[in-house]
């Protein structure tokens, strides 16, 4: 009774301060297991995102205790005579306000008060099915926590993003792309089943066989077709270690030709292909020796001028080979056989070996360094583009050598090909 009185007071206060038009009794009748919060800290947090470019202050923030809480809220919005908007927020890494709302309620999917249930009787802790080789996870679970849970069983998801402190529902609503995508496809190609709250507030299970239209609409649907509350993700045996290699190119066509060759090997046995293929563009000498390029030795910094960069631009091919202690005696020969077909600058081979989890979590280590220098909580403009192979040389001439080559940038510029059939 005390909780109800406090919530009524909070909602009535919202009517006065921000002009809430929804009937307070509608929210009171939700009977959520979690918490509907108007705490200034919660509201401020939900007003911002990683991009720090836009700001929208919600009326309230829901910390759900279950998928049913989310369904009740969305259904209330759908049936409300006045209406209010609902937005799901993962770890806040949207960049242009996609997870914000100025006239409704933000659902904090990865927030501090996440409840104990995914839905009817399902625990929120990732549930690994060893025989079926999959894991069921809450939509707000962070990928780093999924990785840690599955590694306890010697397993791991097949496809990743470069940064693991993102929510499962967030990346599956976008695509989930990284250097493993040429081989396994993006993350959305490695999902068996979803639980989704639709725009009407219906909690539905969908897959290739069940409610397939909803399944394919939600995966990569930018959150426009429903809120992912549970995902069943494919697993594979996790390797123990990674051979991580970077090589430099001064010629763009040679660089992209080698990348395209490597991703064409996706159908070969694991011994005859790399497990990860990415790359990035270097238009500033400082970039070679900091942030994403901290891989290179600070005692022997690479100079763009020393490797004959064409137009002041270099291209870095980034590749990895997974292995276990049992196969450690053959890793050198396998890597050498793959490398001999590449045409990189011979003097620019940089190699390191590290545990599998350390490679997957590599960007977080860079984040901690930037946080220590107060360089993380800053605006993050970001642009992702799919460019057809026929126009990639034009992008190099016009953007990499043209715009960026004449206007040095300190931000990362990633470029790597993907197989369309994945």
Question: How are the secondary structure elements laid out?
Answer:
Blueprint: H1 2-18, H2 24-28, E1 35-37, H3 40-47, E2 60-63, H4 67-79, E3 85-89, E4 104-108, E5 127-129, E6 134-138, H5 143-151, E7 155-157, H6 168-172, H7 181-184, E8 191-197, E9 203-207, H8 212-218, E10 227-237, E11 241-249, H9 252-263, E12 276-282, H10 285-288, E13 314-323, H11 331-339, E14 349-355, H12 356-360, H13 362-372, H14 392-406
Parallel strand pairs: 2-4, 3-4
Antiparallel strand pairs: 1-2, 5-6, 6-10, 7-10, 8-9, 8-10, 11-13, 11-14, 12-13
Domain FAD-binding PCMH-type: 54-238
InterPro entries: Cytok_DH_C_sf, Cytokinin_DH_FAD/cytokin-bd, FAD-bd_PCMH, FAD-bd_PCMH-like_sf, FAD-bd_PCMH_sub1, FAD-bd_PCMH_sub2, FAD-linked_Oxase-like_C, FAD-linked_Oxidoreductases_BP
Family: Belongs to the oxygen-dependent FAD-linked oxidoreductase family.
């Amino acid at each position: 009774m005390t909780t109800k009185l406090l919530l009524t007071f909070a909602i009535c206060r919202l009517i006065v301060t921000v002009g809430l038009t929804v009937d307070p009794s509608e929210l009171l009748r939700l009977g959520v297991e979690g918490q509907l919060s108007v705490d200034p800290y919660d509201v401020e947090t939900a007003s911002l995102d990683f991009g720090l470019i836009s700001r929208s202050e919600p009326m309230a923030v829901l910390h759900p205790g279950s998928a049913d809480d989310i369904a009740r809220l969305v259904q209330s919005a759908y049936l409300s005579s006045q209406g209010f908007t609902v937005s799901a927020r993962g770890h806040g890494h949207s960049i242009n306000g996609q997870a914000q709302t100025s006239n409704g309620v933000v659902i904090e999917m990865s927030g501090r008060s996440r409840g104990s249930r995914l839905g009817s009787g399902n625990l929120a802790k990732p549930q690994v099915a060893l025989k079926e080789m999959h894991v069921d996870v809450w939509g707000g679970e962070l990928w780093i926590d999924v990785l840690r849970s599955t590694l306890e069983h010697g397993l791991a998801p097949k496809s990743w993003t470069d940064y693991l402190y993102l929510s499962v529902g967030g990346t599956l609503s976008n695509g989930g792309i990284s250097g493993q995508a040429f081989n396994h496809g993006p993350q959305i190609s490695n999902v068996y089943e979803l639980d989704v709250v639709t725009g009407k507030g219906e909690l539905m299970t969908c897959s290739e066989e069940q409610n397939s239209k909803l399944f394919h609409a939600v995966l990569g649907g930018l959150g426009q077709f429903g809120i992912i509350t549970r995902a069943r993700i494919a697993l594979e045996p996790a390797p123990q270690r990674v051979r991580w290699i970077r090589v430099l190119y001064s010629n763009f066509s040679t660089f992209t030709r080698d990348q395209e060759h490597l991703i064409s090997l996706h159908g070969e046995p694991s011994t005859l292909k790399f497990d990860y293929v990415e790359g990035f563009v270097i238009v500033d000498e400082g970039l070679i020796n900091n942030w994403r390029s901290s891989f290179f030795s600070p005692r022997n910094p690479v100079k763009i001028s020393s490797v004959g960069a064409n137009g002041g631009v270099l291209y870095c091919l980034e590749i990895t080979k997974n292995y276990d202690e049992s196969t450690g005696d053959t890793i050198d020969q396998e890597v050498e056989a793959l490398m001999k077909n590449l045409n990189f600058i011979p003097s620019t081979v940089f190699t390191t070996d590290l545990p599998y989890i350390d490679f997957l979590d590599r960007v977080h280590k860079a984040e901690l360094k930037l946080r220590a220098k107060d360089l993380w909580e800053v605006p993050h403009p970001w642009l992702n583009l799919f460019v057809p192979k026929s126009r990639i040389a034009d992008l190099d001439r016009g953007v990499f050598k043209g715009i960026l080559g004449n206007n040095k940038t300190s931000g990362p510029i990633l470029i790597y090909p993907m197989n369309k059939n994945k």
